[in-house]
Amino acid sequence: MPELTWLGDRKARLAARHVPYRLLEPIEEVGDAASDNLLIQGDNLDALKSLLPLYAGRVKCVFIDPPYNTRSAFEHYDDNLEHSQWLSMMYPRLVLLRDLLAEDGSIWVTIDDNEAHYLKVVMDEVFGRSNFVANVVWQSKDTPGNNATGMAETHNHLLVAQKSSAFKFSLLPRNEDQLANYKNPDNDQRGDWLAAPLTRAEFRGRDYYALKNEIGKDVFPPKGSSWRRPPDKMKWLQADNRIWWGKNGDAEFPMEKKFLAEAKEGVVNKTWWPYEFAGSTRNASSELKAIFEGEKAFDTPKPEKLIMRILEIASSHNDLVLDSFLGSGTTAAVAHKMGRRWIGIEMGEHARTHCLPRLTRVVEGEQGGISESVGWKGGGGFRFMRLGDPVFLEDGRIAPQVRFAPLAAYLWFLETHAPHPGMRFDSPLLGIHGDTAIALLYNGILGDKRPQGGNVLTHQVWERLRALAPAHAGPWLVYGEASRLQPATLKKYGIVFRQIPYELNVR
User: Which of 213, 3, 272, 239 is nearest to 129 (CA)?
Assistant: First the structure.
């Protein structure tokens, strides 16, 4: 597959694996203290790496609205990056987002013409060209700018990729105008129906034949065309009262009755999203001004209706949604109102000064944006987190403030490339993966405390470990500060011992 090359591309392709693993520290809780929803303050590259041990393969929908690299001055972002720097910024973030996506998940990226085509090639490389889904064109402006020179740009792109072929679109619910097309003028017992053409603008000899209307007259398709159905199928439609000849039975051409009760539960998605369907940037600005009492809180907000459409298509109730360029907090706000779990990442004080108060208002029942259309009345909560120190010091030692649970989560992910199914680590036996039991001796978890806060594998400790999984007959992988067991003893019990921190590295 062709690859895009740019200055610094080799370093960018390797950047994700070299990001240090940091701890996430709680700042405060809003609403429900047990909520899975996370607002994270910090650099999104570091934050995405820190989420891997607990959330890899669990995110159903990613939406990001990265800086467009338009050489415009933004208050909250440095959007004046050189092209190569912008690509190098995006590449490792896309890699980590891919790793966080579920197999049936999808990623949606808003971008303008300035970088859209380059971003498409990079996404093809990261996700695989066969996993490209669509380029949705969103009419982001409902009026052309008066200061435009040449052609007024009134659209943005939504580049959509899937993690794998397991991703499936949800149909969109029919709106009132679409439902109004279904009527029942002949009082058919099967209910309302939609009249669909029975002719095609193409001549096919097999499908060019006479139909008798309800007054006995032979009717042929228009010259140069043919019926959409072969004779046998047409006979069945007539016998089942599925052909409509008009109230008097003598319409020039018949129509097929498509019953609402037999139709799909929604309508197929399109790649053209007018502002009436998905909102506009002007709508987004009005929504934020209402929330922040007239203040211009963000330069490039996205309307809640746009995110609602994406989540309708790409997620279901209680699915996990992630936005690593949270901006003004729109994605998290919409996900919360629609009953999705969410993680939002935003850098700097903007997370506290804008995202936190907006999402707090959502919990309290804020009625702007899509609230009325989805019946939002308030509730739930979220945890406000920040990035802590790296797990490993520069010399490779584990940072002294690292506790057992986050190190266990990191180790489990390191060995299995998947988050722990229970997401809880309160035992030295982390779990059994395949045929191997994985254990961690750290922070005095079994009472064998050391000055450095670790544990030593002794005969007594081994007996206590083995008692945690008495039925397990397979091998053991044990991490600890040191082992006092002889090599023959380790071999006898099927133990592979790895010393921390020296053998606990990103591999």
Answer: 3
